[in-house]
Write a structure and sequence with these properties.
single chain; mainly alpha; 73% helix
Amino acid sequence: MGKSAPSPPPQPAIPDPVKTAEAQGAINKDTAIAQATLNMVDEYTPYGSSVYEQTGSYDGTPRYKRTTALDPAQQSIVDKQNAVTNALNDTAVSQVGRVDEALAKPFSYEGIVEAGTTSGARAAADRTSEIANSDYNYAGQPQAPSSAGIRDAATTAAGSIGTPFSLGGTAPTIGGISGAADAAQAGMSKEFNYRGLPGSFDATGAQNAVQTATDAYGTPLDYSNAPAAPQADAAARQQVIDSVYQQQASRLDPRFEGEQRAMETKLANSGISRGSEAFSGSMDDFYRGKNDAYQSAQNAAIQAGGAEQSRLFGLGTSARQNAIAEQNYLRSRPGAEQGQLLGYQGQLSGLQGQARDDAAQERLTERGIPIQEAGQLQALRGAEFDASSAVRDRSVQEQLLQRGMPAQEQAQIQQMQQSAFNAQGSERDRAIQEGLAQRAIPLSEQQQAFSMQQGLFGLDQAARQRAIEESAYLRNLPLNETSALMSGNQINNPQFGAAPQTAIANTDYAGMVANKYNAEVNAANAAASASASASAAKSGSIAGLAGTAMTAGAMMY
């Protein structure tokens, strides 16, 4: 017999779940304690503080307390809010009795305004419906107009217009007008000329005057005999300056000599000796005043010299300008005289031209008289023609009037018939409108009554609603007052900023144990699978050998 198959490797031991849970719980506890400790951060703000403090431990877990303290000013506010809240609560307690009394009385509509009704509006609506449903007819109204009279008048007018029309009398001719035009043409055919009229103007005298003026202006201007142009006379100016300055100095010299002696005497009498600083200062002031006075005299003398020089220059300029003006006058005089002569020549020319124009106008007038007479004759012939035409037109108009009179009379009759037709139609329309208006008045009155009933209903409803609201308000008033007293302001703790929170991940001990167990199980399963595969291969080899032996034995038999 062969060897037995090897046994599979043993499976790993299953972890103890109790011990695994205990180990995981211990790890979680340590993580939670560390995380809580890290997150307990003391906080301090202007409004108060929040501080953590350990007070002991329980089952190995430390315990803490959190103390929040307000700033003294904030604590004072809280104390006052508490006092106000207590006072309001006391008042609310005293109001509870009123609330019980109000709620103990059932709410009813007794004594409140009755609700509005729709009976009046319904009656008005029924009356309106009756009026609207009644029939309307034209009985008793004037008869409708007819067009018989208008048709008869049109027939009569058509018979009058059918009569033939003929013209009477003789039409006027234009023979007389043509004869007058021929006479005018004969007068206009005569030749017109200027023979025998005064001669035209001779311009020889005007040309001579112009030549004389031209010769006078052609002579060059000569200012050699005029006084020379003035120049600045420095000697005269200096003479005036010296004269004026000497005159001023003749008055200043004795004055300052006396003032100097008086100054020296005054200083000596004052105990100020010559050569002292005070004496020198006073004399300096005196000399400065003296120099200013002489300088002013010199300036005045210079100004007087300049003024005298300007006066002399102006006199010389005026003398030269007068001489030049005289030369210019003598030069322009011949031209002015010839200009006057030329003006006289022009006046003479105008008189001669006027005489020639007057003679020509007389000859034109003499030439035009036959033409004017022919025109007047033609106007008379035209008036005669117009009169003949007017007579004929009047005759024609009378015949037309006689022919159209029946038609006009029939038109007037037709117009009167039309007016009667319109009047009868208007009378009937008015009667119908009055009937319609009379029918609409009760309907309008009922509509107004309906609207008034609706308004009264709305007023009744509004009054009842207001009474109900007032009763409900009085019933709820004690309850609302008590509720308001109970809803006092709440105490607000100081708000602290969020402290940074630290999160520590837990150690997954149970997962680690499970992973280890799964790895051991997988290894055991792999070893068992390899052992089974080896056993199967070995069994297959033995079976093959046995089969070969059996085949060989059969062949031997």
